[in-house]
Design brief:
It contains six helices and 13 strands. It is an alpha/beta fold. Strands 1, 4, 5, 6, 8, 9, 10, 11 and 12 form a nine-stranded mixed β-sheet that branches. The protein has a two-stranded antiparallel sheet with strand order 2-3. The chain has a two-stranded antiparallel sheet with strand order 7-13.
């Protein structure tokens, strides 16, 4: 299985910490967010990982040298000082031919989760599959709805996009435009009823602020003491 870890975010809400450390390399209980997600993918059977970076990307690239002798194949692509966006990054990765499978996982580098990145296959005509979670305090109104296994945008119960998704490469190759935001790309195909989804109620945390970084530390401390 292939997976992309989106690691080019600027981490504005974690300044001044992210003035000197890229957000994916922020540590929680002695282990970086990026390493936690690499380990989770490896535990799920993923062996080919592509990671993008932007500001201070060279620090991520240096960190990844520790995996050079591992059984995983990890590729890094530096986008320069200005990130290409969550969708733009994937378009770029496809352009340079770093994806060697027609379907692949995508995960944000700044989340912590015990989600299992199992081997799945999209049904014919389906461009993507998104993992939704119950709405956290910082996103009470949610992002998307579920109608059976189809993702919709309506006034029904909404859930929060977890930052975990599974795509067909055709989702990008057949897109009507080259999007910057993954949400905008998803909306194009949601309107066409071509995106499925699931509700995940396991461990998940978006470590995007200092409050949630503190929460992540508490969660890890509690687990280590159990």
């Amino acid at each position: 299985m292939n997976a992309i870890i989106l690691a080019a975010g600027k981490g504005e809400r974690l300044k001044p910490l992210t003035d000197t450390v890229p957000k994916p390399l922020i540590e929680v209980s002695g282990k970086t967010l990026l390493e936690r997600n690499i380990n989770r993918l490896f535990e799920s059977g993923v062996r080919n990982i592509i990671i993008n970076g932007s500001k201070m990307g060279e620090k991520i690239e240096l960190f990844l040298e520790k995996y050079q002798q591992s059984v995983m194949n990890i590729e890094f692509i530096n986008e320069g000082e200005e990130p290409l966006g969550t969708a733009g990054a994937i378009f770029n990765i496809i352009d340079v031919d770093l994806i060697n499978e027609d379907q692949f996982w995508v995960i944000n580098a700044d989340i912590m989760t015990n989600f299992s990145f199992k081997s799945i296959s999209l049904k014919p005509g389906i461009m993507g599959h998104v993992v939704l979670v119950p709405n956290p305090e910082h996103n009470p109104n949610g992002d998307f709805c579920l109608d059976g296994d189809r993702v919709t945008i309506s006034n029904n119960q909404r859930y929060t996009f977890s930052g975990i998704s599974f795509f067909s490469i055709d989702c990008f190759k057949q897109s009507s435009k080259r999007y910057f935001s993954l949400a905008d790309l998803l909306n194009e195909y949601i309107d066409k009823k071509m995106v499925t989804g699931e509700l995940f109620e396991g461990d998940w945390l978006d470590v995007g602020t200092f409050d949630r970084l503190t929460q992540a530390e508490k969660i890890c401390t509690k687990k280590s003491n159990e």
